[in-house]
Amino acid sequence: MSMVFALKLFLVPILIWLVTLAGRRWGPGVAGWLSAFPIVAGPILFALTLEQGPEFAAHAAEGTLLAVVALLVFSVAYAWAAMRFGVAGSMALALLAYGMAVAALQALSLPLAGAFVLVWCALLAATRLFPGVAPSVAASSPRRSDLPWRMLAGAVLVFAVTTGAAQLGARLSGFFAMFPVMSTVLVGFAHASLGRGNAVALLRGMVTGYFGFSVFCAVLALQLREGALAPAFGLALGCALAVHLAARRVLGSSAPAPAAPAKA
């Protein structure tokens, strides 16, 4: 079994499993924050580097960075839709908003620095755009049977992006690496089983985590053009972790305190 095949088959599902367990222990906000670390897009970009080369992966990382804006649109759209609709309606509206955002961003041509500034401005704005609903107490016990489906979704995404990279091109591969597979699975489960307040808390945690994720993409895009593969990914992950922890420290306390149960 090649290293690339093993990466596709095992790494992302294992990481999704670990995030799910962390969420069950420490709550949806922590799960959202952890899931925003490059645990899905990172392995995809690593596989693209091995299979398509550093220059291709650098362009893909730029696309992934800009796609953070589309994920913010998805997150805010779902949060507000959840105030009125159940899981199916909220997910449909959020994915529609995401698709429209991707289409608009695909037509946008920005240098790396400009894309980074745009993403951080969007992140700072998004922290203030969520509805003021607090997480509820657990409405029901978490279902263990959904975990294999979460892991399968992650593996399918990695296979789809890396297999179709040559046809998609570097930029669109980068966007597809940020398809909200973690968001749809984790948020849908939280909304269905624990209520909309917990789904919003998870989404808010994701936004906090995207600060570090954006740094990962920007540093990786720069370093893949300058150095070897291992130092590029090592530096990108180190910088992302520092910002990830700092964002949690600064913004983690901004969520509303728990209140009365808020089921969908």
Note poorly predicted spans.
253-264
Count of beta strands: 0
- Domain tally: 1
Q: What overall geometry do the principal axes of the alpha carbons give?
A: globular
Q: Quick one: biggest sheet? A: none
> Portion of residues in helices?
over 70%
Could you characterize the architecture of this molecule?
The chain crosses the membrane at residues 6-23, 30-50, 56-80, 87-106, 112-130, 151-169, 175-194, 201-222, 228-247. Keywords: Membrane, Transmembrane, Transmembrane helix. This is DUF3147 family protein. This protein is an all-alpha fold and 264 residues long. The chain has one domain (3-254). The chain is 76% helix and 0% strand. The protein has helices spanning 3-26, 28-35, 41-52, 54-81, 87-106, 112-126, 147-163, 165-168, 170-177, 181-194, 196-223, 229-251. Helix 4 (54-81) packs across helix 5 (87-106), helix 4 (54-81) packs parallel to helix 6 and helix 10 packs antiparallel against helix 11. It is globular and about 45 Å long. The relative contact order is 0.20.
Concise overview:
By secondary structure, the chain is mainly alpha-helical. The chain has helices spanning 3-26, 28-35, 41-52, 54-81, 87-106, 112-126, 147-163, 165-168, 170-177, 181-194, 196-223, 229-251. It has 12 helices and no strands.
